[in-house]
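Internal tracking record. Fields below are filled automatically when a chain is submitted to the structure queue. Please do not edit lines marked as system-generated. If the sequence contains nonstandard residues, flag them in the REMARKS field before resubmitting.
Queue: standard
Priority: normal
Entity type: single polypeptide chain
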Amino acid sequence: MSSELHDILQEQSENISSINREAEEESKGTQFLSFDVGGEEFAVNILSVQEIRGWDNPTFLPNAPVYIKGVLNLRGTIVPVMDLRNRFSFKNAQYSDTTVVVILKTKNGEKERLMGCVVDGVSDVFNFQESNISEVPDYGSGIDSRFTAGVMTVDDHAVTLLELSNLLSLDLIKHPYTGASHG
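SYSTEM-GENERATED OUTPUT FOLLOWS
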């Protein structure tokens, strides 16, 4: 076999291997972190998770909505902390050993925004095909539909995917200093 033919076959073999690796990654889907909030399971894209911290009382902010618990200092960055149980109007928000703050990030134009979200506990990291995410049915729940991006069926149970760009938007937090309307 000529060296030229050998080089062509080698290049094609590498191309096929690359295509197979890409197809394998694509078949695995996107990774999501799921967590428990008020007995319900929610998820976010794993790439939006900055870190997970144990529960510690944040510094109180006067005039903040009841679901904004305060702020915490994350290595020099001041991060607001939102209790998702209060935000979604779940009753009996208890703080236990499994209560954690998931530090989430989203982009607002060119600027990256961080927000800590208090959850009852972290459940799992799983892969899921984004093309299989269903729309959230309109069933009159207490959760604002702007905060949900869809529903996934994982191991025979529903997991609600959160829409972080809206959930973490200061415009949607009813606070005297955000310019949001009060209703």
